[in-house]
User: What shape does this take?
Amino acid sequence: MKIGIVVFPGSNCDMDVHYVFRKVLHTNTEFIWHKHNNLQDYDAIILPGGFTYGDRLRAGVIAAFSPVMKEVKRLATEGKPILGICNGFQILVESGLLPGAFMKNDSLKFVCKWINITVETNRTPFTYGLKLNHQISIPVANQEGRFFADPKTLKTLELNNQIIFKYHNDNPNGSVNAIAGISNMKGNVVGIMPHPERASENILNPFGNNDAILIFKSLLDYMDEQK
Amino acid sequence: MKRYLVNVIIENKPYVNDPEGETILKDLIAGRDYQSVKSVRTAKMLNIIIETNDRKEAEDIVKKLCDELRIYNPVVSNCKVEVVDIVQVKN
Assistant: This one.
């Protein structure tokens, strides 16, 4: 089993995700430069957070045109698990792998704080081992984190069980319906706005809860099951 | 070939709220002597200089690149392309 973490110019959470998979979960994990165009060897792909291309034009849009994204799209069609975290989520939206759009936070400020999210479905590889309504303590850090989808798209997301995580009580960026994470129709491509890699060990969490690691553990359990 | 200045204006669709425009109206304009101002919406503008045979070609190429390279996100934004003027080339 091999996990690939795509590194774009301006990614800055790549090392954290790598650390969690390698040191905490003891999983074979490699970095993939965004100019790479063959991902055949990887069983799952993570697009980490950061500020690719300095968020110029719009968060994630320039990275969405990187050579590696053609291959990420191919893997998505094959049904391989793909997770976009924060800026990675924005890249998935800009590349058309996930619906909707991201806009500047309601407050127009960069928001960096601990919040809680709830698990809305466990049908994806990244929520496979989680119970419905399970609350996860996790930090958000974004400026263009306001998820938006028109009413028709929202209805489709709800009907197909594509809303994966919601903000609990505190909606830090004004996302529509408090959405913190969605998936594609199939469920193998997931985007999450908060940062599970920053909450995967007790020492990182002021509330002594490291449940965010269950998102990554779910992936490993799911892949074991698929074998 | 002529050089044209083309403006690309990217603005939020009417149903998408615009907190920046709302703040400019609420906290800067309203409460001063500009009661006639009813709404402010912000937008982003790109000035593109392009060399083509005519205005139509300039407009078509810029429209195509805006769509293909996602210069705007069609979920939340509209995009207007206006050929403004011929740019003088200094020799």
Remarks:
- The two ends of chain B are 15 Å apart (CA to CA).
- The mean pLDDT of chain B is 93.
- Chain B is about 25% helix and 35% strand.
